[in-house]
Amino acid sequence: MCYLPIMMGAAINTDAFYDQLEELGKRLYIESQIDIPPDVRAAIDAAMERESSQVARGIVNTMLRAMAISDKKHTLVCQDTGFPIFFVTIGRGFLIDGARLIDALTRGIERATVDHPLRSSIVSPITRENRQTSTGDGIPVVHIEFSKEIDYIDLLMIPKGSGSENMSFLKMLSPSDGINGVKKFVMEMTVGAGGKPCPPTIVGVGIGGTSDLCTLLAKKASIRPLGERNPDPQIAALELELLEAINATGIGPMGLGGDTTALDVHIEAAWTHITCNPVAINFQCWRGERRRAKIYADGEYEFGY
Amino acid sequence: MAEHRLTPPLSEDDVRAMRTGDVVYFTGTIWGIRDATYIAMYDRKRPSPVDLSGSVFLHVAPNVRKLPNGKYEPMTVGTTTSMRMDRFTEPSLRETGVRAIIGKGGLSEEASAALKSLGGVYLAIVGGAASVETEQVEAIENVYFEDLMPECLWEFRVRDFGPLTVAMDAHGASIYRDVAATAQERLASIYAKLGIT
Questions:
Q1: Contacts B104 to A, Cβ<8 Å
Q2: Which of A104, A150, B42, B106 can bridge B176 by disulfide, Cβ–Cβ 3.0-4.6 Å?
Q3: Which 23-62 residues of chain A touch chain B by CB within 8 A?
């Protein structure tokens, strides 16, 4: 008989831990919709500086006002509470019950929706039934990954509105289309989306992998903090090249014309099959909402973006 | 670019005086409407409970709180994507006498033609800036089609509601069309720069 080598350690198994996790899930869902990340604020400020069109300046000014009002009154910036999505990265040394973690985060979302109250935007795709809890089969979306680079649990919440999520695209290009096919697809979809994803957007692009990995990469790209480049210099150059190209289209804030169509372009890539050349796009609207908590081994936690 | 400060109901002259790029503010009554109410009124022919001639429609998806006295308090009032409701533009102008539609993302060429022939405008609001809108909603005066919650017909009393940009006017002009045409025109040189043939 064979046995798997199992590391014996201190498994996290107390009710108190998962209760705390539920509370964190609740706070992250609410806070992410009130407090816009500093990098996004800086990018909107920069857009205000850059815009030459009067209509565009008026629009960006309203965006700045919306954030200022929410800061002061502690209210949601957008009415669309969106899809609740968690990216959980578990660092070294945590023996955590993944199923309990998902349950706790789901309860946190439900409590945020009922107690705050928030609008529940989640329905059955067949009957369109709404449980009024922002949850349902498969929702919240919880991505769990493991990392040897960190010694904490990284809990990142992104509430994703439907205006931008509805403008998500995947194409399985041919290898002969090359990287130029990828660039062309990004340009065509961005121009086609126009004002619908609430530009200026953060354009997340996934290149390579399988179809499912490619769309996940695009989503991850869309939530990377603004100004951070892909560590691969070739991909980083492609990000800047596409950012300039997208802003040269003149689509502008809310699609009404202007110099800022995208706040940034982020690309995440994975290797793919010799016969494949997939590309996916995921837009994040101008608010770039995200909020995170880092939970350390001693139970301490801190909030960030 | 002119600025229009108006109190609905609007006349045909009011909207014919607006040109794309103008800025509009409303004080008074505007009507929140979206998918379910449109379907009820124009597909299922449920008669409107109120006279909506000269009215202003807002494509809205509000967060509300019901108070013990049965009234609704606005929590977060924000505007949704108009394209989903595009096909109701013509009947709402023709059958109901609506003069202005407020939304985000724009409407189709068919809707633009209806705005021109029947005398209506599409006013673009800043999507996602709901906290600004919410401050400008003084009260929810009435709620009709309550069975369609939250997609009811909402009667909002607003003050200085805006700024709204005239994005599609009653003369057939459309900023969305112009912006799309410009983008298409520029793509050739953008592709050349990207090395795309």
A1: 163, 195, 198, 254
A2: B106
A3: 54-55, 58-59, 62
Amino acid at the residue B133: E
Residue B151 CA to residue A49 CA, distance in Å, equals: 38
Q: Which residue in A55, A117, A198 is closest to B65 by CB distance?
A: A117
Q: Which of A196, A242, A245 sits opposite B105 (nearest CB)?
A: A196
Query: pTM of the predicted model, to two decimals?
Result: 0.94
CB A98 within 8 A of CB A11: no
Q: In sequence order, what are the residues at sequence separation of 6 or more whose Cβ sits closer than 8 angstroms to the Cβ of residue A271?
A: A208, A209
What's A92's DSSP letter? T
Q: How far is CA A223 from CA A44, A146, A187, A283, B38, in A?
A: 16, 18, 20, 9, 35
Between B76, B104, B163, which is nearest A58 by CB? B163
Residue A119: how many CB atoms within 10 A of its CB? 22
Residues of chain B in contact with residue A240, where contact means CB-CB under 8 angstroms, are none
Closest CA to B76 of A74, A106, A165: A74
pLDDT confidence tier of residue B85, bands split at 50, 70 and 90: very high
- Per the omega criterion (within 30 degrees of 0), is the bond before A175 cis? no
Chain A residues inside the 8 Å CB shell of B179: 194-195, 250-252, 255-257
- pLDDT, tens digit (0-9, with 9 covering 90-100), for A23-68: 999 999 999 999 999 999 999 999 999 999 999 999 999 999 999 9
Q: Of the candidates B63, B78, B190, which has its C-beta nearest A118's C-beta?
A: B63
Q: What is the C-alpha to C-alpha distance for residues A133 and A122, in angstroms, rounded to an integer?
A: 8
The rounded distance, in Å, linking the Cα atoms of B96 and B83 is: 19
A192 neighbors A200 (Cβ within 8 angstroms)? no
Alpha-carbon gap: A294 to the closest alpha carbon of chain B (Å) = 28
d(CA A122, CA A128): 9
Please write the tens of the pLDDT for every residue from B123-146: 999 999 999 999 999 999 999 999
